[in-house]
Amino acid sequence: MTAIHRTTPRPTLVLAVLFAGAFVMGCAEMLVVGMIDLIAEDLTVSVPAAGALLTANALGLAIGGPLLTFLTTRLDRRRVLLTTIVVFVVATLLPAFGADYSAFLAARVFTGAVQGLFIAAAMVTATSISPPERAGRAMAVVITGFASSSALGMPLGTLLGQAVGWRGSFTAVVAVAVVLLVVAVRVLPSVPTPSESHAVGQARFAFAPRVIAVLVLAALIFVAILSAVTYLVPFLAAVTDVSGTAVGAYLMAYGVATTIGSFAGGRFADANASRALVIGAAGVTVSLVVLFAFGGNPLVVAIAVVGIGLFGMATGPSLQHRVVSLSGPGAPLASSLPASAVNAGIAGGAFAGGVAIDVAGVSAAVLTGAVIGAIAIVAAWATGFLKPAAVAAPEPVATH
């Protein structure tokens, strides 16, 4: 494994490819959000049915990602990464070139699954070419790629879709992915899994109670965030009295904040991941409380929205860092699990916020998020005491 450093003289270039892969796959996932009305009209389905395309991607990632990671755990990570890009291109070609709704829905499950596999393999690769003390920052590069897709890729893709049609946006994603594949073939290093590492043995460590506890924390944090953010637009209209083009400014501010937070979070993960999770959960909760209490003040609302995005995504690298370190020799498989937990939190947050709105109005969704955030603070503090099992061997990605 130490040969990776000798055969990879340009780790920055490798990280750039991993960032680009995460960005492109994230764009394909989030394009549905920005063009949901165009897709619904063209495919003659309802808007909720078009929204199911996003759910299909999330479920594919949450369930298929860990399953594919388990099945490919003995393979070289280079081969896995290149294969995921190829499958992603093929699956994304379907909506780009005339697939109907059913085929599009099925393709979204596949793209979500390979996206989850890409995340896991990219995390292992990123940490393999980086010193252990910079592991959090290496993970943050991949996470920032996905965060940037929401902040930059989605609005750009939406503008393109409005100009040339929604299928045109997916065609552009395919074109960029093909270029990425060509570059990846030349740049990505070989990262073999240790011969003594078996899938079943990895699963025993990856799904240990200490790891599950951190995954629950990840879900709680994102339930808190999405309970409010999912319904931010109606909150702005009903409580803040902001509508029209001004709403875009708030959404853009949130997207930029998530990108900054995910990138900066890598440094905090390297310094003290457990403490960073407590601070992140507290920052999200305080921001939600401020949003609820001062929802009628546009400036304060803007600050609160930025705080949610900044603190929320800053927890991403620390969650990944803690899961990988606590799973020990199960790290290659465990690397896929935080993304699944986050997606579960996204789905749970949208549901919890929706129930709260049905019961007590749109402000209740924000209050619900704040309450769950408070629980997440306690969970973050409690998981800080967790340590890897004494019998666990050092994690493969930290031995370089």
UniProtKB/TrEMBL annotation:
Protein name as catalogued: DHA1 family inner membrane transport protein
PROSITE patterns: MFS, PROKAR_LIPOPROTEIN
Keyword tags: Cell membrane, Membrane, Transmembrane, Transmembrane helix
Main localization (coarse): membrane
InterPro entries, sorted: MFS, MFS_dom, MFS_Efflux_Transporters, MFS_trans_sf
Keyword Transmembrane: yes
SUPFAM superfamilies assigned to the protein according to its UniProt record, in alphabetical order: MFS general substrate transporter
Subcellular location as annotated: Cell membrane
Keyword Membrane attributed: yes
Pfam families named among the record's database cross-references: MFS_1
Membrane topology: Multi-pass membrane protein
Parts of the chain that traverse the membrane: 12-36, 48-68, 80-99, 105-126, 138-157, 169-189, 210-233, 245-264, 276-294, 331-353, 359-382
Naturally occurring in which organism (per UniProt): Agromyces ramosus
The Major facilitator superfamily (MFS) profile domain, residue ranges: 14-391
